[in-house]
Amino acid sequence: MFTISIMKDTNESSVNNVTQKTIVAEEEININSSEYFINRHIGLMQFNLRVLEQALSEEYPLLERFQFLMIFNSNMDEFFEIHLAGLRRQVSFARETVNIDGMRPQEVLHTLSAQIKLAIEKQYHILNDVLLPTLSRNKVRILNVHDWTSEQSLWAEDYFRNQVMPIISPIGLDPAHPFPRLVNKSLNFIVSLDGKDAFGRDSGMAIVPAPRSLPRLIRMPDELCNDGDNFVLLSSLIEAHIDDLFNGMTTTGCYQFRITRDADLDLNAAEVEDIARALRGELHSRRFGSAVRLEVDKNCPEDLVNFLLEQYNLTNDELYRVDGPVNLGRMMPLKQMLDRPDLIFPPFTPSIPKQLRDKDTSIFDVIQKEDILLQHPFQSFTPIIDLLRQAAKDPCVLSIKMTLYRTGASSEIVDALLESARAGKEVTVVIELRARFDEEENLQLATHLQEAGAVVTYGVMGYKTHAKALLIVRREGAQLRRYVHLGTGNYHSGNARVYTDYSLLTADPDLCSDVHKIFQQLTGMGKAERIKKLFSAPFTLKKNLLRLIEAEAEAAKQGNEAHIIIKVNALTEPKIIIALYQASKAGVTIDLIIRGMCCLRPGIPGVSENIRVRSIVGRFLEHSRVYYFHNATPHAYCASADAMERNLMHRVEICFPILNARLQARIRNDLQTYLMDNYQSWELQPDGHYILNTPAVDGERCTAQTVLLEKLAD
Q1: Is 110 assigned a catalytic role?
Q2: Residues 83, 376, 466, 485: which is the catalytic one?
Q3: 354-532 maps to CATH 3.30.870.10
Q4: Model's pTM, two decimal places?
């Protein structure tokens, strides 16, 4: 009943055309045709559905399954705030551009609405009928009001009156109290009332915003519970004591609701003189953007629902009735609030390469001898932190230049930069203020660094600085020597424990010189200088990827073995997709490991029969970007960039070659491991749906992340 096809693109005629094609004459195929492309928003929704499926996997520990359900909720929040909001803006402003997939924004919205409603129904089914009962059997309970004992009820009443009631502010609706401006994604209650208040008002309706400063999940005292870990939701406490907020009146109904708003920021490069000041203004407005979704308790009466829809100018297409608490994401802390190692993944210790284990040996000496390649989270992020710490204390280090996109609230990376700046070293940091949902944190970070004496710039207006680069200049005798770190992921130690990414530490003179030139471009002005080994966006990355794909196609035409493996988070750029189609037609074997949205249709006769697309969804978030070409020299490249229009044309990105032959082989082996995964991988079909791979009846199970964990971690 709750089956959701991990599918399906709506353009039925296109899909049928694709799947019905068998052998088509070469001249009849137009690979630019919309039928060969999947809509990017629908592709992203498919990824969210794959995440939701993880909550049902009995192979995962119970609390990890619960966590996946919360992650799905968080993903959907962003999906509405950014993607659906953008589509609605196109429709509202009559900018319904047709992308290469041929679907208009209104058509995409309609398709997604149906898919999302089914997904939300399934989400609450998993919560209510699967996870909560299973948690309860494992002595972890989230108690509803009707579950409370008399002692627990007394405690709840006391907690409400002393911890909640002094903060909460009910708002009666009347001409003097119009409908309040509620913050994005905040928990609220609509209350129906009988009677008159002290002033004789009888509007019959009120809004109660839940205090955002209070935790959503509250632990009940152990002495009031028989055993296990017992919790109560803030929403349950408010609902149980709603009468206390309206003295002398009768509440006839109390129902949760939540509004999701357009949270995309609008900074016009032509009109902004100071990006930091402009961003501070935009951050405030984000909390009150246009409404794009109304979530409401499924039991809320129709008249109250219609009243809320009217307030926000929404229709039934944007209405989502939920069978449980709204904003499940606020239950994310449950895992951290418990000491239940039996219900989570077993811990592991990321390894450190043996070259870097000797604390008496300078990291600079190690990097000077050979390139070091780290694969997080299986290998530790600590060497990057240690490199910066050593640089801060080393009197021979003269300057540090670094890009920062996301760092986390408490960052050892930032601490080392602050120490270096205070020690009088030349510290230059390019901070991307527009890192989505981290803007405020990055503004604060910029202030702290400037106060310590660092030079802070905000990249290039109109181009997000998404590159991950660190450049250290050190005096060694009579010469200056450069050292570089390049990565596929952010300088964020928290992410490095749960995201898969590559890090390269190198002293290669050409790579170091290239990174120096990129920093010159970012902080200064002038024409782009020629760089020798790196590919950079928006200048050379896209054209070099196209060149490498075309070279592989030419090798195939000449009868040589040809193989392309690309592992990225998303593939949406039309010219890259068309180039891959052409390479497939030429006979190149193409394996694509695409975590999220993929606009390419694999397996189409005469177009993409040599292309396989898979998505890995597992314990860790697949985040590394790798481009492998069998006939290229070198074979392997890692990058900060996905194969998307925004990354290749509208961002500052770095794609770096893996020069060492041993490290190239290692990357090839890692990619091969992902291609062998038959348990946590999903195969994309020509019609746009995904099928979960399973081992043969007598076959051996292979889980890529488990293999890498066993191979690399201590």
Answers
A1: no
A2: 466
A3: yes
A4: 0.91
